[in-house]
């Protein structure tokens, strides 16, 4: 059955969504944009009719026999993948029974594509709130075990390089015939060489593709794999540090001479004087490559928090100020690892150091510290990290730098920690352009299903509706109305009342 015949089973709005889901790799994103626009024009619009129609039984011919299949099974594999990705984005705001019924219909078909299988299982796990078993296939599990076994001996020679040694050898063997053929300038030989290279590349890719069979990891195997992963991570960090320190031979002698002086001051936590400031002048003489090497040799990421205030105080006494690249490198090595590892409220010494450097070097701090913390992705931001970022936003950044942070937030995953930072930014009364506010309301609309019961999200919406009324145009009004339809907190009536008070 062709696509046009399939689409006749759906209403007009659903057909528009289905066309978006057929638009290649960006189908899920395009469908979300269409859905958001539909919700703006009609806040009561739901996907229930679409999901119910996809689950309807449809007669079709299978192996010379007339059988009944769910309508969703008659669409292409690309459509199914885009539909599952689309439901991943919106499922918190959809009826669970409708989505689970659709997943059951999909599993009735013989799903050959491994990505589709994984997406079905992952969405089912997210809806049911379970994390049992694994999404890995049996072949992928075997390769992961074999990979981790190579790191059981932490003293093994080669470490990361050893794991990819065979792959690099194959690449070299593949490239050598091509180079020799170019020297002979023979068209026929070039063609054969390219064919050989393509065949070799396909063979390497096939080696890493999982098979269609799948098994669960046992309770005894999972802890071993996690331990091995930690060991391999530590080994790679150690190897990277050795590579950086090995390049220290390229540093000028006077820079090398300053390293033990600064390290002793950091390690002993003794009082810093004018001589200490003189030692830090070496940062003025570094180019971007040298400052990276110097920071690694000084092991700034391992400096004790008690030594940070004095070290930062001496940096601030340097004249002229550090260059943008140098300040960014120092902040990345000195402060970022400590902020990323925070599991409890930051110490007074760490907060003092961060705020002092942020006040003097706001833009490097935004790019080298605040943005990486915001972009943590699936690992999420902890409350201790959010607290530090909120203090920087409120006490250290100028309005134009707050706007820089705000625009960064529009492109990162949101969690409760990020919501705290957004609330702090909104309370600072940002000077938003019409475009910035429109992008923000679009992001609010896409995120609202995920935070339907979040009090932080509700309070942030209330702040938008009370402090930024002048920014709300008719399009934004529809978007905000759509956001409120997802809200399930006791503030919903207050939010609706605040929205009604906005005159267009």
From TrEMBL:
Residues 247-502 form the Fanconi Anaemia group E protein C-terminal domain. Pfam families: FA_FANCE. It comes from the Eukaryota. InterPro entries: FANCE (IPR039685), Fanconi_anaemia_gr_E_prot_C (IPR021025). Residues 174-237 are annotated as: Disordered. CDD domains: FANCE_c-term. Residues 186-206 have a biased composition (Basic and acidic residues). Residues 210-222 have a biased composition (Acidic residues). GO terms for biological process: interstrand cross-link repair. GO terms for cellular component: Fanconi anaemia nuclear complex. Residues 228-237 have a biased composition (Low complexity). This is Fanconi anemia group E protein isoform X1. It comes from Carassius auratus.
């Amino acid at each position: 059955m062709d696509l046009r015949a399939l689409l006749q089973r759906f209403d007009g709005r659903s057909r528009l969504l289905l066309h978006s889901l057929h638009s290649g790799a960006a189908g899920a994103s395009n469908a979300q944009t269409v859905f958001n626009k539909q919700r703006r024009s009609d806040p009561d619009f739901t996907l229930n009719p679409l999901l119910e129609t996809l689950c309807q039984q449809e007669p079709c011919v299978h192996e010379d026999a007339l059988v009944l299949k769910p309508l969703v099974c008659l669409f292409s594999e690309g459509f199914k993948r885009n539909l599952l990705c689309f439901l991943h984005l919106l499922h918190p705001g959809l009826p669970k029974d409708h989505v689970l019924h659709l997943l059951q219909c999909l599993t009735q078909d013989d799903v050959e594509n491994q990505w589709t299988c994984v997406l079905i299982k992952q969405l089912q796990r997210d809806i049911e709130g379970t994390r049992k078993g694994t999404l890995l296939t049996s072949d992928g599990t075997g390769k992961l075990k074999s990979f981790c076994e190579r790191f059981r001996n932490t003293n093994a020679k080669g470490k990361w390089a050893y794991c990819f040694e065979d792959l690099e050898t194959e690449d070299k063997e593949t490239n050598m015939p091509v180079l020799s053929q170019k020297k002979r300038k023979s068209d026929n030989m070039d063609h054969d060489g390219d064919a050989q290279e393509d065949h070799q590349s396909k063979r390497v890719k096939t080696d890493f593709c999982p098979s269609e069979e799948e098994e669960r990891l046992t309770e005894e195997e999972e802890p071993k794999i996690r331990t091995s992963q930690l060991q391999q991570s530590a080994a790679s960090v150690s190897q990277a540090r050795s590579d950086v320190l090995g390049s220290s031979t390229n540093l000028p002698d006077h820079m090398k001479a300053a390293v033990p002086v600064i390290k002793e001051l950091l390690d002993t936590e003794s009082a810093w004087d004018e001589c200490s400031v003189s030692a830090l002048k070496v940062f003025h003489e570094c180019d971007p490559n040298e400052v990276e090497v110097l920071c690694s040799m000084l092991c700034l990421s391992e400096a004790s928090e008690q030594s940070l205030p004095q070290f930062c105080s001496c940096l601030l006494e340097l004249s002229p100020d550090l260059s943008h690249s140098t300040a960014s490198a120092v902040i990345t090595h000195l402060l970022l690892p400590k902020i990323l590892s925070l599991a409890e409220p930051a110490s007074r010494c760490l907060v003092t150091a961060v705020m002092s450097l942020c006040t003097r070097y706001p833009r490097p701090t935004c790019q080298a510290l605040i943005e990486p913390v915001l972009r943590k992705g699936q690992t999420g931001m902890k409350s201790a990290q959010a607290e530090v970022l909120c203090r920087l936003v409120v006490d250290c950044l100028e309005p134009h730098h707050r706007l820089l942070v705000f625009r960064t937030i529009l492109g990162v995953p949101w969690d409760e920690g990020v919501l705290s930072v957004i609330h702090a930014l909104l309370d600072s009364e940002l000077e938003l352009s019409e475009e910035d506010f429109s992008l923000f309301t679009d992001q609010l609309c896409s995120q609202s299903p995920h935070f339907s019961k979040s009090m932080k999200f509700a309070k942030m919406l209330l702040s938008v509706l009370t402090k930024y009324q002048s920014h709300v145009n008719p399009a934004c009004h529809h978007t905000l109305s759509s956001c409120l339809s997802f809200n399930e907190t006791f503030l919903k009536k207050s939010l609706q009342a605040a929205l009604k008070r906005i005159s267009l």
